[in-house]
C-alpha cells in the first residue's frame, strides 16, 4: 500500500535564541523535499505553512521567553499533526525551532492512546532539551520540550496533549547528545531518561547504539523520530542556530537513519532547527533531505 505523507510547515523561531529557523520549511522545499520523497514511492501532500504569532523578540519573563506565543504555536502544531494521524497519514513537521516538538509529540502520544498503540520516540539532537525555567541559562523554550512532554514545565504547555505527562520518559531514547547544562544534567539523571551521548557512540559505535534504541518494539509500536539537524556534526551541517562540535559523521548519521528505516515502523517525523541565515548555499537542508531519504529506505544495494 502506498504510504501517504503530509508535510506541515511551522515557520517560527519563537523558542530559539537565534533568528532564522522560521525559514527552515522553505529551505526544505527549495531542496526538493516533496519530489525526493515521491521518488521513493510515497504519496506526498504539502499542507503549506501554519500561521501563528510573530516573534516579539523579548527577554525572558519568569524564566521563559515568549511563553504565550510558544503555547499558541504548539497548539497549532498539535492540532495539525493529530489531524493527519487521524486520517491515517504520516505527518512530517518542518520546523521551525525544536520547541515545536512538544506540540508534535503530544499529538502523536494522544493518537497512540486513541489507537491503543505503544510509542517510541527517538530524539536525535546535540542537546537533551530537558531544561525547566529554574534550570535554564537562557529562557529559550527550545531547550525545554522533552521536560515539558514528561510533565515538567508551565501548565499551559504540559497540558497541550490532553494528559499530563504526555509521555513517559521510558518511551524516549536520546541519541547524539553532547551539550547538557549543569542543572539539566542532574535532572536527566534523576528522571532516568535514556541518553546515548556522543561518548557512548564513540565507545560502542552507532550500530550498537541503534540496536539498543530500537529494541523491544513490536508491530503495535508507533515510532516517532524528532530530528534536530544540529544532531549532525557542525562541519557537515553548519546551518543551525546552536552548533556543537563532535556530532555524528555523515556515515554514522546515515547508518542511524538506515537502521530506523529497517524497522518499517516510522510513523511520524519532525525535522527541526534548519537555519538558512547561518547556512552555506542551502547545504544543511539538502543534507537533511538526504538523511530523510535514508529514513524512508534509500540504500546503496537492495536489502531484505
Structure characterization notes:
It is a single chain. With 304 residues, this protein is α/β, with parallel strands linked by helices. The protein has helices spanning 24-30, 33-38, 67-86, 101-115, 145-149, 155-158, 182-191, 198-213, 250-263, 283-295, and strands at 4-10, 43-49, 90-95, 118-124, 172-177, 194-197, 221-228, 266-272. It has one domain: Ureohydrolase domain (Arginase, Chain A, 3-Layer(aba) Sandwich), CATH 3.40.800. It has 10 helices and 8 strands. It has an 8-stranded parallel sheet, with helices on both faces. α3 runs parallel beside α4 (101-115) and α8 (198-213) runs parallel beside α9. It is globular, with a radius of gyration of 17 Å. The mean pLDDT is 97.
Distance between the termini: 18 Å
**Structural class based on helices, strands and sheet pairing:** alpha/beta
Can you tell me the CATH architecture? Answer: 3-Layer(aba) Sandwich
Q: Please name the fourth-level CATH homologous superfamily.
A: Ureohydrolase domain
Question: What's the arrangement of secondary structure elements?
Answer:
Layout: E1 4-10, H1 24-30, H2 33-38, E2 43-49, H3 67-86, E3 90-95, H4 101-115, E4 118-124, H5 145-149, H6 155-158, E5 172-177, H7 182-191, E6 194-197, H8 198-213, E7 221-228, H9 250-263, E8 266-272, H10 283-295
Helix pairs in contact: 1-10, 3-4, 8-9, 9-10
